[in-house]
Write a structure and sequence with these properties.
This protein is an alpha/beta fold. It has nine helices and eleven strands. It has a single domain, classed as TIM Barrel (Alpha-Beta Barrel), CATH 3.20.20. Helices cover 37% and strands 18% of the residues. The strands form two sheets. Strands 1-2-3-4-7-9-10-11 form an eight-stranded parallel beta barrel, surrounded by four helices. It has a three-stranded antiparallel beta sheet with strand order 6-5-8, with no helix packed on it. The chain is globular and about 50 Å long. It starts with a helix and ends with a helix.
């Protein structure tokens, strides 16, 4: 596999920012009084801060749909499609989507909104905070083919948050077999929860066993460690760090985006 990242993002070692959407209709945290319009308004504010701060791409997800479903209700992806439609004229960087935690719905949403990539849990069986989590990558791969979504890049999160792989297998073998059998476009390595540090040793193990498949560090990147993480990874997905005071629930703060992107660009320029 050739490294497709420069073709999509226009740079090596891209920084992809999370655009966290507020709770959707049907979610416990949904504000039915403010409605979907309020979700759109916040998304527009945060998108502006991320893009003006210099990120290379954005990943739009229903991050506040807690607790997550492993097979989402139709209203979630439908509402996200409306929101992305209202953001289209303001999206100036490549974007992806993630309907948590539903790979099939993520691919459907990407196809409907012309997103370049998705990130999801496509393989494995897990004991998780959301119950027993069983995936079916073969079915999802065939669905992707049927709907003409071969051009949508699939980022496989092989160290999912809030979950543990049930099989007694080491991370190196998981990375090798996932690449061989499932043909991911990239692998993502995470910490325990959003914003939690990603173990550098785990990141290195996945990178060493992924062959030519790009590897993203998926959580816990900060301005002070972005160079260290990008020295191993081929890119980074960053959300909580960009929020006011570095807190998951807060809105994006442009100055924090600019600070991290200065460090990322300095590292890339020195390569």
């Amino acid at each position: 596999m050739t490294n497709w990242l420069p073709d999509v993002f226009g740079t090596r070692k891209p920084v992809v920012a999370m655009l966290h959407l507020d709770a959707m209709p049907g979610d416990p945290g949904y504000d039915s009084t403010a409605g979907v319009a309020a979700i759109v308004d916040r998304a527009k504010r945060e998108l502006a801060g991320l893009q003006e701060g210099g990120v290379d791409g954005v990943l739009i997800s229903n991050e506040f749909s807690l607790p997550y479903l492993t097979k989402t209700e139709p209203i979630t992806a439908i509402t996200m499609a409306r929101i992305i439609g209202e953001l289209q004229t303001e999206l100036a960087v490549p974007y992806g989507v993630n309907v948590l935690w539903d790979g099939r719905a993520s691919i459907d949403l990407a196809t409907a909104t012309d997103a370049k990539f998705v990130r999801e849990i496509f393989t494995g069986v897990y004991a998780s905070d959301f119950g027993l989590w069983d995936t079916n990558v073969g079915e999802v791969a065939r669905h992707r083919h049927r709907i003409g979504a071969a051009g949508v890049k699939l980022l496989f999160n092989i160290v999912p948050e809030s979950a543990k792989y049930l099989a007694d297998r080491d991370l190196a073998s998981i990375a090798r077999s996932t690449v061989f059998a499932c043909k991911p476009d990239a692998l993502c390595v995470s910490g325990l929860t959003a914003g939690s540090p990603t173990d550098t040793q785990s990141l290195s193990i996945v990178k060493e066993n992924a062959g030519d498949t790009p590897v993203f560090v998926n959580t816990g990147v900060r301005a002070h460690n972005v160079a260290e993480q990008l020295a191993v990874a081929d890119g980074a997905v960053i959300g909580t760090t960009f929020k006011h005071d570095g807190k998951f629930e807060n809105e994006v703060e442009r100055s924090r985006v600019e600070e991290l992107m200065r460090e990322a660009r300095a590292f890339r320029d020195a390569l």
